[in-house]
Amino acid sequence: MTAPLLNEDIRQPTQENGFLFIPNLIGYTRIIFAVASLYYMPLHPRTCSLLYSTSCLLDALDGAAARHFKQSTRFGAVLDMITDRCTTTCLLVFLASAFPRWSIIYQGLISLDYSSHYIHMYATLAMGGSRQSHKDIDENRPWVMRLYYSNTYVLFTVCTLNELFFIALYLLSFSSPTLVPSLLMNQKPSAAQPTRPQIWNSLWSAGAMEMARANKIDSSVPWALLAISSVFMLFKQYVNIVQLVEASKWLVQGDMEMRKKERVGQKKIS
Q1: What is the tens place of the pLDDT at every residue in 42-93?
Q2: CA-CA distance, 150 to 158, in Å (whole number)?
Q3: What Gene Ontology cellular-component terms does the record carry (predicted)?
Q4: 84 a catalytic residue
């Protein structure tokens, strides 16, 4: 006669909560830093740059945590991609308002960024299967995509310096009279020149104090960062273009194969 099982001997499988995986918690932290940077973006360039950069640097940490704790999930991958796209877009929107003459360039960068990543993700799911990651690039794809997605160091370096390029432009919008002539504070406003917003007229307002600090930023450092990161920014846009073209070809190839199978099936029926 067997002894009855005790309660402690009954092993229940543990329930996992994917929302609370460590990489996803890091992803939520990234969002908090990103939103905080947007709050400070219009008037506080130093604080904004620090918060925004922290959010970008955490992008590498969540991937390392996912591999270390074996908690790689599709939700985490999508969360990471959405956070990247949204934060970059918000910064580019600010740059479009800071440099209205170049706004069409920033609008084009936003469109390219979203379209290339969306069609690449969709093509991977539609053609590669639901279990395939968008970072799994086979040998038939161009070398630039294999290099970009297969090497985590290249991926992190390119993405980080791409963001650094736009951060440098953001800092220059507060520090370079060459790009923003209105930063010449000693110039008196004329009838043809718009005055500062009403909130800055008060000497005790946070906006007035921050603008006073911002105009003391030495533009040489942002210019140097811009020069260093420009090559990586251009490379990132090239990857986006290649990604867009290759994903489009992949989808069209799938469409043609599906149409061919339909025609073969119709011939068999007839």
Answers
A1: 888 999 999 999 999 999 898 899 989 999 898 998 999 999 999 999 999 9
A2: 13
A3: Golgi apparatus; membrane
A4: yes
Least confident of 44-48, 88-92, 153-157, 195-199: 195-199
Closest CA to 223 of 175, 270, 168, 261: 168
Cα–Cα distance between 65 and 169 in angstroms, integer? Answer: 31
Contact 113, 88 (CB under 8 A): yes
CA atoms within 13 A on the CB side of 2: 3
Q: Contact 145/243 with Cβ under 8 angstroms?
A: yes
Look at the block and give the residue holding tokens 């970008």: 56
Q: Could you tell me which of 112, 219, 122, 209 has the C-alpha nearest to residue 176?
A: 219
CA–CA distance, 42 with 93 (Å, rounded to integer): 11
Give SS3 for 195: coil
Token reading at 44: 């506080």
> Could you tell me how many residues make up the chain?
270
Residue spans per domain, the chain: 22-128+142-179+216-262
Residues 147, 149, 151, 156, CA torsion sign: positive
Residue 189 one-letter amino acid? P
The one catalytic residue in 59, 62, 80, 84 is 84
Q: Which residues lie closer than 8 Å to 116 by C-beta, 6 or more apart?
A: 240, 241, 243, 244, 247
